[in-house]
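Intended use. Records like the one below are meant for learning the mapping from a protein sequence to its folded structure. Do not use them to infer anything beyond what is encoded.
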Amino acid sequence: MDTNTTTAVENDPLARASTRTWKEYLGLVARGFAMGSADVVPGVSGGTMAFILGIYEELIFSIRAAGRKEFWDALLHLRIRKAVWAINLPFLIAVGGGIILAFLTLAKGLEWTLINKPVLIWSFFFGLVMASIITVARRVKKWSVVLGVALAVAAAGAYLLVGAVPAQTPNSLLYIFLSGALASTAMILPGISGAFILVLLGKYQFALSAVNNRDMVSLAILGAGAAIGLITFAQVLGWLFRKHHDLTVAILTGFMLGSLRKLWPWKEVVEYITDSHGEKIPTVVNNVLPPVQIHGGFNTEILIAIALAAMGFAAVLLLDRLAVKIGD
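Structure written out for the chain above:
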């Protein structure tokens, strides 16, 4: 998005909407599905997908508008049409619909895979994030020593953080609300996955189960936290990208690099506890190298894992190249 378009979107979030066709809105639904597919897994973020697919700044400014005076003045005075235009509602509905569709269609399969085939699914996630590091780092206009240091510090912080996350967290209403708020902020960051934040907070499996079991109370609390978190953080993020773009992207790249510790496919449980249902919950987990041989033969899981990581890596780079061609 060029500078003139960015200004137009900020001043009038629906500057494009009046000229969009139904085919273009279907395209936005598809882009939303790609974002949702990313956010439902602890891998590449929906924000990265929005960045790659060319809707990131419009998304940020549209969400940001929901917390601004123009929208609330129109809403409180029942000028509904003006309120709708103020927040670019058709755009948000199209993208949001795609995200919800991805959640509803992918959650059950991912929950099963994480339980039964963890090495394979984490391998795919690992490849996604590796490629995302490259694509997001390219957004820095000019690298410098300061930006390199910022990246390194952020990577070290993320590395330590993901290794210090407790295995169990409370299911209180307040904690679920805060988890939704924090995860939603990550959904619009190019580099940090909302689902990954839920993993860190110990609420990823909880959220998947809530979707699959249609637990409307838990979903409503998560959703309320997500809505407030999105609107609040969009104000901050818009300012950061406008005033300190390269530094912000460098820090986000560092976060992604450090998070690879959490996504390493092969792990060894050192310590665990047993919960009230008799299930073993890991408390200390170390990353290990995979065994080359199993039952006297070569461990073919290694080759499958490498292939899946390569597929995830290639998928992100392909999307990035496609977006460049579309932009040209």
